[in-house]
Each structure stands twice: as structure tokens, then as C-alpha cells.
Design brief:
There is one protein chain. The chain is of the alpha+beta class and about 140 residues long. It has one domain: Alpha-D-Glucose-1,6-Bisphosphate, Chain A, domain 4 (2-Layer Sandwich), CATH 3.30.530. Helices cover about 30% and strands about 45% of the residues. A 7-stranded antiparallel beta sheet has the order 1-7-6-5-4-3-2. Strand 3 and strand 4 form a beta hairpin. It is globular.
């Protein structure tokens, strides 16, 4: 099984962080795995879209849970393996947001290649989240001035 988790904390407000997190039209600006994401309409449970990865592969992406402004999950299937991406925002202290991402996978590919997949996600997930944090904080500071 594949399982990778990472968290970051930054200054901001929950709603604007959520708006950036689920803005699939601009997701490629901070998500190092994604070249493009397309959905036919607004995100909701059951929404099915197309994810084009930076390596050129195209996957069917399905939203499996959506609890605005706290968390959502989506998933893709790759040759019989199911990859689940869980995204969570919380505000334990006013003005301080913690964002947690979890990537898990089950199935044959996930089992056979669990170590290289875990290692790749463990290396890249912090970069992705730091990109989000940096871009969010820059836009949040601009909106306050």
C-alpha cells in the first residue's frame, strides 16, 4: 500500500485558502504533478474530470467527497490501482491555516511499486505544498493592502 502525508501551516483565512485549493482552472500554477485539470462544471461529489499530468499521461479524476471549506478527496485509477488524494484545511488558531494532504493507493501497481511510488510522493508532496503556501501568502498579503 502507498501512503504519504504532509502538512504546512500559513497565515490566512479558511475561505480564501479553500477557494485557491479548489480552483481547478489555476491548480497547475502550484501543483507540480498537474499540467491541466478539466471538469464540465462546478466541483461536487461525483464530478468526473480529466487530469493531464506533467508527464503527459491523462487520467479520469473523480471527486469522491467535498466538505467546503474543510476537505475534499478525489481519486484516479491506474491499471487496477486506486489512488486517493485527500486535501484538508483547518483553522485551529484564528488567522492560521493548516493544510494537510494525504495520498494513498491500493491495488496491484501500488503493491508492486509501493516503495518507489511512496518515495516519489514523499519527495514531491512537500514541494507542491510549499508552492501552494508561497503563492497563497503572496496573494493574501496583496489582498490585505
Amino acid at each position: 500500500m502507498v501512503f504519504v502525508e504532509h502538512s504546512v501551516t500559513f497565515k490566512g483565512d479558511l475561505q480564501s485558502a479553500w477557494d485557491k485549493l479548489v480552483d481547478w482552472k489555476r491548480m497547475r500554477d502550484w501543483d507540480i504533478f498537474i499540467d491541466e485539470v478539466k471538469f464540465d462544471g462546478p466541483l461536487k461529489v461525483g464530478s468526473v474530470g480529466q487530469l493531464k499530468a506533467r508527464d503527459g499521461h491523462i487520467y479520469v479524476l473523480t471527486v469522491t467527497d467535498l466538505n467546503s471549506p474543510n476537505n475534499y478527496s478525489d481519486e484516479i485509477s491506474i491499471m487496477g490501482s486506486r489512488f486517493v488524494f485527500f486535501h484538508e484545511l483547518s483553522e485551529k488558531t484564528p488567522g492560521e491555516i493548516t493544510m494537510r494532504f494525504t495520498i494513498s493507493a491500493t491495488g496491484l501497481i501500488a503493491f508492486i511499486f509501493q516503495y518507489p511510488i511512496n518515495n516519489a510522493f514523499a519527495l514531491k508532496l512537500p514541494i507542491l505544498m510549499d508552492n501552494f503556501k508561497q503563492q497563497y501568502e503572496e496573494s493574501f498579503q496583496k489582498s490585505k493592502t
